[in-house]
DNA sequence: CATGAATGAGAATTCATTCAT
DNA sequence: AATGAATGAATTCTCATTCAT
């Protein structure tokens, strides 16, 4: 059982909120300490430096996200149901957490190589999750002759772009039934045959 | 005929290269001046400040990109050919410019609101371009009952994610024939019916 | 009771000394921080920027000067005694503070409008102080038919020029008994009748 | 006969106008070159550097001022007439040239020691001019037992302070007949006997 | 002579991090 | 453990001056 640490949690929560809203550079250490209602020095009791706080924030959010999404997918039986679940859960988490994950993902890429590796690591986990579904589906012979990696990229790329636009442009965001449209289109294609 | 300005061009080219490689914050003004082999002060003869240089760099690359892609699409007759062209040209430009466009796109989102508007403006132009194709295709009755905006998001999102990954992970990037896979999958779907 | 703040005071004292000796532009922020034996950044903990430090320095010195001079004048009964006191106190403060006030006054006028207003404000207070004495004296019918504002300008102008010269040219400065000469001359005139 | 040089004169005139309006530091070399409608480099054909241009501007104005005032005084016979003339000519030049002389005088003191000496030199000439009048008057036995140097300081200080206020605060400036008041007050005193 | 593009020394300011209390 | 005052390395930007045309 993880030891309870209120101060540390307060700092992390503030860091997540501010980093995902303003990015790494615009967020100052003092902003986080003010928001968390702790002293500036206290942050350095729990985190080596600003960069580590950033990494830990990302780690925390990603792990939450991936634990949640993995569990949801595991509850489903067929690859199709799993894919549909992935889509709906992505949307659900985006609504709930205001795209924190996607915002952090975008921001990370701007901030140097050490962070980069962690991003890649987490992103790869996400990719592998979906890739596995496609590979299973291929084995079960429910898919056409598709490349599972290309399919994965397509699937994730489409969802992320939707969610990103939803986050950035609330006016033109996708409607609830858009998810059905999206899912059907990806699976059954766009064109009349 | 635009008067040619060697120094200004050298600065812009260096800025584009460094900003897209390292992002706005990691790139120092002095780095750009060294790379362009000009004095630090010279940059301020042509650009009001670092932020403006950044904006101008983005503007330049985006306009090049959009001019090129628009022309390529106009050369095609059918919506299907246009979509295919969009895909191939995106890939071509990504190879050529080392994903500068996508790198800048990603970086912009991390750097404050004034830049954000410009991003949205350029991104919207890109979206409208594809949206138009889908709308025309719907009129010509070649598509299923799809929502053109959802289709557009899917199409662009899938492509960008591919290109982004190609840029980030050069080792695992998509092969040439992946583009065919991608295109067919998007149009004809993934699932056997 | 004002909380004492040693660092802030050290900075202000150094600023007053250097600004009045070298003026706003020749005095660098690093000079002040070195002189005050604090870090460069510490100055920015207490003052928004160099200009604010300058303003606060001026404010501090002027208020000290005006509080002192006002108190001294209030202790005197007749307009004549008040004028004499004003003269002697001006001289006393000049000796004590090395003409900081006059030096700052002179320097302020060279440094833009926002400062200018503050100068005018403080200078007006000084002028009003003397003007009041002349007006009271006129009511008491001890003065000839003089214009109180012209008299005030004359009185202050003469004193300032003396003090200024004393500060600039220490060799040729006015002797102690010069003050008596000055006072008598102003009151009784120069010319034989 | 001084060789005519239009460019140099244009630069000097602009320099005088801008330096006296904005001071040494706020006036940029490019401002002067723009105002004079010459190239920036041209200034360096005629003046070693910005400081020398400043010095030459001051020199030019002061010499004009002193030549004029000296000539005016020489035309008068008695010390009293000379003093009155000095007062009226000071006022006349202030109206005409907008206090350029006084503005430059004030600004000089803020700008380092090399300039300082020149100021002192010119100021001393002005002081000597008036001092001579008082000394002559004393010889002619028209003055009370006054110290000529104190009288000089008083006389000049009073006038400068008037002119300075006139320049800075146009609303409250001295009226024409104030000059008479001023003159009579200085000569005959303020107090009833 | 005249010019203005090019330059870099120099200055103000920011902010992550340290450390004495 | 918690704090925030103190710090200075690092960065952007300015502007007097030079010099090739």
Instruction: Name the assembly state.
Output: homotetramer
Q: What's the CATH class of the domain at 57-188 in chain A, please?
A: Mainly Alpha
Which percent range fits the helix content of chain A? over 70%
CATH 2nd-level architecture of the domain at 57-188 in chain A: Orthogonal Bundle
- Give the biggest beta sheet of chain A: none
Span between termini of chain A: 57 Å
InterPro entries (chains A, B, C, D): Homeodomain-like_sf (IPR009057), HTH-type_Tx_Regulator (IPR050624), HTH_TetR (IPR001647), Tet_transcr_reg_TetR-rel_C_sf (IPR036271)
Keywords (chains A, B, C, D): DNA-binding
Organism (chains A, B, C, D): Anaeromicrobium sediminis
Domain HTH tetR-type (chains A, B, C, D): 5-65
What layout of secondary structure does this protein have?
Four copies of one chain form a homotetramer.
Chain A: H1 6-26, H2 29-35, H3 40-46, H4 50-74, H5 79-97, H6 100-108, H7 113-139, H8 148-168, H9 178-188
Helix pairs in contact in A: 1-2, 1-4, 1-6, 4-5, 4-6, 4-7, 5-7, 7-8
Chain A binds a DNA duplex (21 and 21 nucleotides) through residues 7, 28-30, 33, 38-42, 44-45, 49-50.
Pfam families (chains A, B, C, D): TetR_N
Protein name (chains A, B, C, D): HTH tetR-type domain-containing protein
GO molecular function (chains A, B, C, D): DNA binding
